[in-house]
User: Which sequence fits this backbone?
């Protein structure tokens, strides 16, 4: 377990050593990713059979230690992040070379450090550790977001850092300190640590502080950083803003709901109900905004904001179905959205097109990419035979169990909106005639490395429809799903 | 034999060395001598800390004259802790002065620089170590007069004006303290702090004592640059030579905080200070104003030294805020922050000294491309800046944790929120520097790598590492600070 934490850092170091030779450097990156996957997967059987590996590194203040404990949610998140790291690295090699980006060594190093932070978040055994890695992730991704180095990148970096550090210091840290004052420790304990410790009013304020303090979950009105961060190179957008950073946010919210408050407490007090509505509104509004965006990455970014709130919804509905749905959505959405981002990047590399309106007829030149895009879209929308349906299924069950008809309606409408803003892209690419100029005909598919990555994630979308069982079984002990059903 | 005289040596060694330094005509030899002296001073401070941790507080009668007639040096945990900070910074700064002092003044006068520097060191160590109120004033004047001279050494003529302003304000502060001590002597007939504390217990409701309290608190506040008495500080730090700013920022104001703590807790006692005189709300309001207003002002500065000077005023606000809670956690926060702030500000100003050495100026616009030109210096600025913000695993986080906990203990939500807001301001001003240094391309023709000399870079890196190390292994700082807070609070009857 300790090894898994260190692997990406060692990888970063090796990348730095091999900075002179691009091939060697990138093989180091791939190697670190493979080792990480093996290590994470080797923990899987233990966790699935109920084991909770524990590792305490050091005690910073009395009662405040840097400790790790692996439980199913973290296992899921770590597995998703590490597997997609490998895929993204392969993709990045094609993309960064195809696009002739500068400072590639810094890019790969920061990438590896970000992954180390993500694994740290996934494994964290108490709120303090989680907070440490949460901040580390923000800072490690800053050079990635601002990779281009221009004026736009600088401004985006400001928004990114401002919102993420701002919310985390102002709300989250306050909430953590407050929790510490109330409960005396910050360990993640199933069932929560706050029951009978504080009046409902305080619990309600605390929960709000946490939910809004996790800026990475992009709950409105703290969502602006996500579209801003899209100035980053596409592999960064793909891994960090479809997987690591945003999923770290919603993962944090799930962890807090389950292990700091406990869903029973949330359900009993009803303190999370209004946040449910905020999440529902975020889902709808972000989907609507996505429809207005012509820039493909911006559209995907707003789609991500909307989809993240599904997970928040899962946590705040506070029942077993919803939590399982939310947790599944972490994996399902990650795979689907990364496919979409990969495609967007592939289109950029191959044709230098960024706007949706320019992509008419592109399907003829890049049939493969556009097919993958269609698959990813269908999975995000939640249609069979793709993985996305399972998470929506459980979330819908969750809304019914909680008696929130309005929220269910929001889910359904949101799915329709997804159809409206995602499907036109592949449809027009395949069926609309290409614009008159002859340039389009010269466009070829993206580099091979990119295509491999896209294929893998597109197939994963499909595979998760047929084999969600391992994930489901991993997650069910978290909330006693069998008992509830 | 010698070990029993360590408290005296702590002060006497740099005091005697100062004139010797001036007598050595050669700059290089003077430097070697000053380095040797300051490191020995640091070792003495370490030995004292070890001794105090093991055996409890230590009293040393100067010249064998017992209290209350003679001057007593009294060293408890807090004293030893502050001694370490002052002596440590002194050692690092003298070491790094190897080639930098010539940049700020002509080579012939380097020996004077080291002489004055050792005098400041003497004064600051003396203030800390003494157990006698009048002796404290004497050392205060030694350190102040010498530091006016150091500030005036700055390269451009505005340094003279800044030094003059510092002199006026500093003298008013010192006079206030003297007036307070005089009143105390008139009431109690003693100058020994322990004696004072005992006799003040027996004095009920004396207007003279209250006046003395007011004089001393205001005087000390001037010395430690508590908002709104901080006007001298930004000018002095901006125009002083970069190394001097580094040393003063890390030590002089901290010793001011120490004086305040010493008088509030040891001499007057917590009950008198916080209940009779209700000092808590006063310090809290000014501390909060300092933290918020100065951080805000720091955002708009174009000169980076001035920016960090305002940030110092804000950080001092944190320490005073910690004191104002009059609780164990609050006091711990203040003491820990004395240390952590010394490390981070020392690192920042030394890094700026590196920048001055190569670039000649620390206007924000001159730092363009610093990330490429001086990567190590830049890395130190980022690390110390993160500590200033209070990012976890840095020293700044530990202090902030205690400070906010102390506020939450007393259900002061707004205060806790204000502290966090002020750290957001810190994000903004630190990031202004980072953005310029990282994104903007260097001025034409100056893109080459030009790291400062190793003698300057190594101390900077050492302090930056300290920022991180003491954020992870907090036992040395927090442990001592908690114990020191216990001692101080135990003295309240």
Assistant:
């Amino acid at each position: 377990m300790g090894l898994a934490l260190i692997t990406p850092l060692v990888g970063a170091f090796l990348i730095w050593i091999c900075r002179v030779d691009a091939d060697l450097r990138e093989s180091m990156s791939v190697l670190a990713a493979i080792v990480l996957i093996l290590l994470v997967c080797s923990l899987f059987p233990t966790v699935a059979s109920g084991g909770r590996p524990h590792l305490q590194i050091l005690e910073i203040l009395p009662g405040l230690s840097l400790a790790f404990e692996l439980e199913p949610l973290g296992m899921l998140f770590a597995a998703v992040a590490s597997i997609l790291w490998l895929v993204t690295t392969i993709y990045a090699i094609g993309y960064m070379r195809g696009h002739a980006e500068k400072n590639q060594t810094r890019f790969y190093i920061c990438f590896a450090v970000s992954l180390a932070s993500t694994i740290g978040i996934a494994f964290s055994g108490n709120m303090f550790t989680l907070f440490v890695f949460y901040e580390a992730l923000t800072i490690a991704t800053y050079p990635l977001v601002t990779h281009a180095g221009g004026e736009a990148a600088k401004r985006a970096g400001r928004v990114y850092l401002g919102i993420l550090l701002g919310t985390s210091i102002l709300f989250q840290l306050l909430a953590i300190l407050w929790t510490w004052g109330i409960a005396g420790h910050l360990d993640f304990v199933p069932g929560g640590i706050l029951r009978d410790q504080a009046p409902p009013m305080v619990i309600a304020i605390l929960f709000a502080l946490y939910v809004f303090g996790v800026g990475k979950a992009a709950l409105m009105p703290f969502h602006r950083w996500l579209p801003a961060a899209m100035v980053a190179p596409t592999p960064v957008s793909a891994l960090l803003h479809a997987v690591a950073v945003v999923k770290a946010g919603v993962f944090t919210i799930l962890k807090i709901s389950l292990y700091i408050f406990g869903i029973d407490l949330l359900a009993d007090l009803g303190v999370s109900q209004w946040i449910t509505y905020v999440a529902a509104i975020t889902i709808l509004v972000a989907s609507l905004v996505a429809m207005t965006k012509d820039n493909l990455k911006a559209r995907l970014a707003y789609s991500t904001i909307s989809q993240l709130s599904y997970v928040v919804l899962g946590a705040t509905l506070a029942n077993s179905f919803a939590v399982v749905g939310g947790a599944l959505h972490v994996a399902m959405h990650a795979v689907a959205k990364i496919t979409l981002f990969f495609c967007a990047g592939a289109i950029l590399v191959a044709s230098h097109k960024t706007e949706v309106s320019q992509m008419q007829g592109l399907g003829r030149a890049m049939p493969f990419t556009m097919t993958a895009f269609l698959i990813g879209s269908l999975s995000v929308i939640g249609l069979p035979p793709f993985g996305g349906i399972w998470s929506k299924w459980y979330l819908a069950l969750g809304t019914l169990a909680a008696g929130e008809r309005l929220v269910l309606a929001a889910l359904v409408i949101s799915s329709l909106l997804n159809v409206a803003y995602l499907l036109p892209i592949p449809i027009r690419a395949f069926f609309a005639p290409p614009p008159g100029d002859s340039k389009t005909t010269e466009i070829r598919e993206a580099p091979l490395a990119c295509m491999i990555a896209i294929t893998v994630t597109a197939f994963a979308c499909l595979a998760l429809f047929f084999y969600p069982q391992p994930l489901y079984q991993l997650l069910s002990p978290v909330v006693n799903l069998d008992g509830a059903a | 034999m010698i070990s029993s005289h360590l408290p005296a040596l702590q002060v006497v060694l740099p005091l005697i060395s100062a004139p010797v330094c001036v007598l050595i005509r050669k700059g290089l030899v003077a430097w070697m001598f000053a380095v040797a002296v300051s490191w020995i001073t640091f070792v003495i401070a370490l030995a004292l800390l070890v001794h105090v941790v093991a055996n409890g507080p230590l009293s040393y009668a100067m010249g064998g004259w017992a209290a209350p007639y003679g001057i007593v040096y009294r060293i408890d945990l807090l004293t030893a802790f502050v001694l370490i900070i002052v002596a440590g910074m002194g050692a690092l700064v003298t070491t790094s002065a190897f080639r930098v002092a010539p940049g700020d003044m002509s080579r012939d006068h380097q020996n004077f620089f080291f002489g004055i520097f050792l005098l400041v060191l003497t004064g600051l160590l003396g203030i800390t170590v003494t157990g006698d109120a009048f002796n404290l004033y004497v050392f205060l004047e030694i350190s102040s007069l010498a530091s006016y001279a150091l500030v005036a050494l700055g390269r451009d003529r505005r340094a003279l004006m800044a030094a003059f302003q510092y002199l006026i304000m500093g003298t008013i502060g010192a006079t206030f303290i003297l007036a307070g001590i005089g009143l105390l002597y008139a009431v109690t007939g003693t100058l020994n702090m322990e004696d004072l504390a005992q006799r003040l217990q027996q004095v009920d409701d004396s207007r003279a004592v209250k006046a003395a309290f007011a004089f001393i608190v205001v005087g000390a506040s001037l010395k430690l640059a508590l908002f709104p008495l901080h006007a001298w500080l930004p000018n002095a730090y901006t125009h002083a030579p970069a190394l001097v700013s580094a040393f003063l920022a890390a030590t002089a104001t901290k010793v001011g905080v120490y004086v305040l703590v010493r008088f509030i807790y040891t001499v007057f006692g917590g009950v008198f200070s916080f209940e009779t005189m209700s000092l808590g709300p006063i310090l809290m309001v000014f501390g909060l104003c300092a933290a918020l207003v100065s951080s805000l002002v720091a955002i708009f500065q174009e000169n980076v030294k001035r920016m960090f000077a305002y940030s110092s005023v804000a950080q001092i606000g944190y320490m005073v805020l910690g004191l104002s809670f009059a609780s164990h956690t609050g006091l711990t926060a203040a003491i820990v922050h004395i240390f952590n702030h010394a490390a981070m500000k020392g690192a920042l100003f030394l890094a700026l000294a590196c920048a001055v050495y190569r670039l000649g100026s620390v206007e924000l616009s001159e730092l363009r491309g610093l990330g490429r030109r001086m990567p190590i210096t830049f890395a130190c600025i980022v690390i110390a800046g993160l500590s200033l913000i209070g990012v976890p695993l840095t020293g700044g986080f530990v202090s902030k944790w205690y400070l906010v906990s102390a506020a939450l203990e007393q259900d002061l939500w707004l205060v806790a929120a204000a502290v966090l807001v002020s750290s957001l301001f810190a994000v903004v001003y630190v990031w202004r520097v980072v953005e310029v240094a990282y994104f903007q391309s260097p001025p034409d023709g100056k893109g080459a790598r030009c790291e400062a000399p190793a003698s300057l870079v190594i101390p900077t890196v050492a302090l930056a590492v300290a920022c991180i190390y003491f954020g992870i292994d907090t036992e040395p700082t927090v442990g001592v600070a908690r114990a020191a807070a216990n001692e101080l609070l135990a003295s309240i009857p």
